[in-house]
Design goal:
The complex is a heterodimer.
Chain A lengths: L4 H8 L1 E3 L7 E4 L2 E4 L5 H10 L9 E4 L16 H17 L2 E3 L9 H7 L8 E4 L13 E4 L2 H10 L1 E4 L3 E8 L8 H12 L7 E6 L1 H4 L3 H9 L8 E3 L4 H7 L8 H11 L12 E6 L6 E3 L7 E3 L13 H14 L14 E4 L1 H4 L2 H11 L9 E4 L4 H9 L2 H8 L2 E2 L20 E4 L14 E4 L2 H10 L16
Parallel strand pairs in A: 3-4, 3-6, 4-5, 6-7, 9-10, 9-12, 10-11, 15-16, 15-18, 16-17, 18-19
Antiparallel strand pairs in A: 1-2, 2-8, 13-14
Chain B lengths: L5 E9 L6 H4 L19 H4 L16 E4 L11 H9 L3 E4 L4 H10 L2 E4 L2 H13 L4 E5 L4 E4 L2 E4 L4 H9 L3 H6 L2 H10 L26
Parallel strand pairs in B: 1-2, 2-3, 3-4
Antiparallel strand pairs in B: 1-5, 5-6, 6-7
Classes of the chains: A alpha/beta, B alpha/beta.
The complex binds iron/sulfur cluster (SF4).
The site of iron/sulfur cluster has 13 residues of chain A, from helix 12.
């Protein structure tokens, strides 16, 4: 019987099969670090007198705490400053390459890896960060780990791991105009729930996935964790190879040919079986948003705020009632009438150049809604430079948006970019938990297209709700 | 991690059940970037209370904590074990532990010994009758002795073996160093390396322009 892609990746990284109930030992090809989850791991090494086994397979960047304004000034918040300084000191002491604030390759760790060509098909990738699943878009086994595991990988370049189950997410059909990868993944999470993927590695398959660009695939894999999954991945193809080719760390010449020959083997066999399968038709999708306080509480934008009474399941009913209370929403209100205070375009979900281009295309020549703030935070400094080279910064600034420096920013509000209590956002990030973007803040997860249209109208909107561009003066 | 066979030290009777990790170390201490130096954070909320056991001079140098049932419940923070170890504890004895706490202890070389509640009562009495009395914990024999009292404790075989060998998770994986090296020898040369650094040409980045 054949094997799935996830199982092949596991097999090919098996250092040692576990015996007597001990876990398998898996080799790690790339380990990324950021300032929040690595400090105690490095200290653990220091205490035990250990070194980083493979600094050449390790990379660090600053993202969670970094300010997006005045980046040439010392960081005002003490905890943030100490965390970042500690990462810099650790990187220096242990010989780990770091991309610090002010460097073109500083940015959200999951944007930086792929942009440098360090993320490639067929790898195992880990980081002390749950959205490491992003890298699965290259046909890699990529997952988040805890601080003691960070130390483990630093010291051994391996992890003792128990096997996982596999789930196929089949998305067939063509995505309608105005819908994106973000709508696919929000629909998937609404369908299977925030716990639906628990214990599984998801493999996204089908025509709609194949039709996605490489960056859009990262958006899909990024949110696998929001369905509770360990990881999510997509088999690599020409789209992937094209994306990797020519990047700083991409193989060249004969190495490139050898690599591609290897990568072409990275598919799930025809006769392989998954432990579970979920089917979705992309043609049925519309722009999707969340209305609640977990990413599984989503609905099409064309719908209205749900009535908790309509949920058959008692737990869901209660969760919905609590969520609506926190979100300050009344059942029956059309989503299109929900006024938004802040639009956030950025994060490792939707902070890449294609996301910025798509949003800029929509707002170009239009005016921002007067009471809505629009924060644009490129995923990495290089994305920002690229956007500036294309003149996108001008489009955003002319529109009335704030054009910021790279980092996680308002995705989790560890830096000064936060929502005020009760402030409502439409955010292209991945988590709408209570207080995620600032204490008491209310988050609606949306695609970059919905974010842009919402910034124009001031209420949750899709591009289809805007006057045709031709009608603009 | 140090090998653990026997340990003799002052016993500290903590007559409380359900000591959760928030009590062991409050959340405000989690912002730190270190993994040592948490001794001041241990039981922080109780340390202000003069009658708290660790504030009594006879117990201050304690290294064996004898606690009530359900020790270590609540959030999974690894800091709870760090704080106990930093204070100087080598052993925690209770009749029941929260699973995650027990798992974290085993990984970091703190012995979590499960003793019947009736035996805990005996130990408490002995320690209170003579503050500063020492206990001897033998991992080899799975016993705790205090004067003429000797009681049995339970511990998972695998964890016991690890503690006796002084192996943390990392140490265990490094036992397979040869396998790791052999695996590395087979890795294809084209697989990416972060060093030496390869990036696109350096570009200057200026601070964000002021927002209107
Ligand atoms: S952008 Fe958000 S989700 Fe992504 S790594 Fe940063 S904080 Fe985490």
């Amino acid at each position: 019987m054949g094997t799935t892609l996830a199982e092949k990746l596991w097999e090919s990284h098996l250092v040692r099969k576990g015996t007597d109930g001990a876990p398998d030992l898996i080799y790690i090809d790339l380990h990324m670090c950021h300032e929040v989850t690595s400090a105690q791991a490095f200290e653990g090494l220091r205490i035990a007198g250990r070194t980083v086994r493979r600094p050449d397979l390790t990379i660090a960047t600053e993202d969670h705490n970094t300010p997006t304004l005045d980046i040439d000034q010392p960081i005002a918040d003490e905890t943030s400053r100490i965390q970042i300084q500690t990462l810099r000191d650790n990187a220096k002491e242990f010989g780990v390459r770091i991309h610090s604030l002010g460097d073109a390759d500083q940015g959200v760790v999951h944007v930086v890896g792929p942009q440098l060509g360090l993320t490639m098909p067929g790898m195992t990738v880990v980081c002390g960060d749950s959205h490491t699943s992003t890298h699965g878009a290259f046909g890699a086994l990529a997952f988040g780990i805890g601080t003691s595991e960070v130390e483990h990988v630093l010291a051994t370049q391996t992890l003792p791991l128990a096997p996982f189950k596999t789930m196929a997410i089949n998305v067939d059909g063509d995505l309608p105009e105005g819908t994106t990868a973000k709508d696919i993944i929000l629909a998937v999470i609404t369908k299977i729930g925030t716990g639906g993927g628990q214990g599984y590695v998801l493999e996204y398959r089908g025509a709609a996935i194949r039709a996605l660009s490489q960056e859009a695939r990262m958006t899909v894999c990024n949110m696998s964790i929001e369905a509770g999954a360990r990881a999510g991945l997509i088999a690599p193809d020409e789209t992937t190879f094209e994306y990797v080719k020519g990047r700083p760390h991409a193989p060249e010449g004969a190495d490139w040919d050898a690599a591609v020959a290897d990568w072409k083997q990275l598919v799930t066999d025809e006769d392989a079986t998954f432990d579970a399968e979920v089917n979705l038709n992309a043609a049925d999708l519309e722009p999707f948003i969340t209305w609640g306080t977990n990413p599984g509480q989503g609905a099409p934008l064309s719908a209205s705020v749900p009535d908790p009474e309509d949920f058959a399941d008692a737990d869901q009913r209660e969760a919905a009632a609590n969520a609506l209370k926190y979100m300050g929403l009344t059942p029956g209100t059309p989503f299109r009438e929900v006024a938004i205070d802040t639009v956030f375009l950025g994060s490792c979900t939707n902070g890449r150049i294609e996301d910025l281009r798509a949003a800029a295309d929509i707002i170009a020549g239009r005016e921002k809604a007067p009471n809505t703030r629009f924060l644009v935070v490129p995923g990495s400094a290089r994305v920002r430079l690229q956007a500036e080279a294309e003149g996108l910064d001008k489009v955003f600034l002319d529109f009335g948006a704030e054009w910021r420096n790279a980092g996680c920013s308002m995705c989790l509000g560890m830096n000064p970019d936060q929502l005020a209590p009760q402030e409502r956002s439409a955010s292209t990030s991945n988590r709408n938990f209570e207080g995620r973007q600032g204490k008491g803040g209310r988050t609606h997860l949306v695609s970059p297209l919905v974010a842009a249209a919402t910034a124009v109208r001031g209420t949750l909107s899709s591009p289809a709700d805007l006057e045709p561009a031709a009608a603009l003066a | 991690m140090e090998k653990f066979t026997t340990h003799t030290g002052i016993g500290v009777p903590l007559r409380r059940s359900n000591v959760d990790t928030d009590q062991i170390i409050p959340a405000v201490y989690l912002k730190r970037v270190t993994r040592t130096g948490f001794e001041d954070a241990l039981f922080a909320a109780w340390r202000g209370d003069e009658s708290f056991v660790l504030n009594q001079p006879a117990y201050q140098a304690g290294s064996v904590l004898v606690a009530g049932p359900d020790f270590g419940t609540g959030s999974s923070r690894e800091h709870a074990v760090w704080a106990l170890k930093d204070y100087g504890f080598k052993v925690v004895i209770a009749s029941r532990f929260a699973d995650i706490f027990r798992g974290n202890s085993g990984k970091q070389g703190l012995l979590a010994a499960i003793v019947e509640q009736s035996d805990i009562e005996l130990l408490w009495k002995a320690l209170e009758a003579e503050p500063g009395k020492e206990l001897t914990v033998s991992l080899e024999d799975r016993t705790v002795s205090c004067g003429d009292i000797t009681v049995q404790f339970e511990i998972d075989d695998y964890v016991r073996w690890r503690l006796m060998e002084g192996l943390d998770d990392i140490g265990l994986s490094l036992q397979h160093e040869e396998d790791i090296t052999a695996f590395e020898a087979k890795r294809e040369a084209w697989r990416p390396k972060t060093l030496p650094e390869k990036t696109e040409p350096k570009q200057e980045i200026v601070a964000a322009r002021p927002v209107k």
